[in-house]
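Example record

The entry below shows one chain as it appears in the dataset: sequence first, then structure tokens.
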Amino acid sequence: MKPLFLLLPLAIAISGCATVTRGTTEAFLVETEPSGANVSTSLGLSCTPTPCAIPKVKREAEFSVTIEKEGYKTTTHNITHQMSGGGGAGMAGNVILGGGIGAILDANNGATQELVPNPLKVTLEKLPEDTSAKAEIATKLEELTDDQPAS
């Protein structure tokens, strides 16, 4: 009976297959075209300039990402999660090896999940130039030069 009792801690330690092999966090990557944008999230995390990575984001997180760059429209994107292939394999390992505790652990801590989309790839849209302001300035300059006496 003693040898079986000694194996119990080992069985518990390896029972969370996805937790052990994948962990509960992952790096979240942001790529923009053009590069050099500022990234902030509703989680209070940020990175700059793009391309950049935010390390150790919980795999089961749901959050929004705001991307800003001078001269371009600000964009906001929603990030969610889904079951990953590697997480499903870890869960299957729990079931096959009889790790009921591991299956419960993996299902509850997000180790079977992955952030989607990751990486987030965004093409920024250039802001339109304010042609009315340029036209107004050109008109004022023309008026000023017309009012000047000829020498």
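Notes for this example: DSSP finds five helices and eight strands in the chain. The mean pLDDT is 79.
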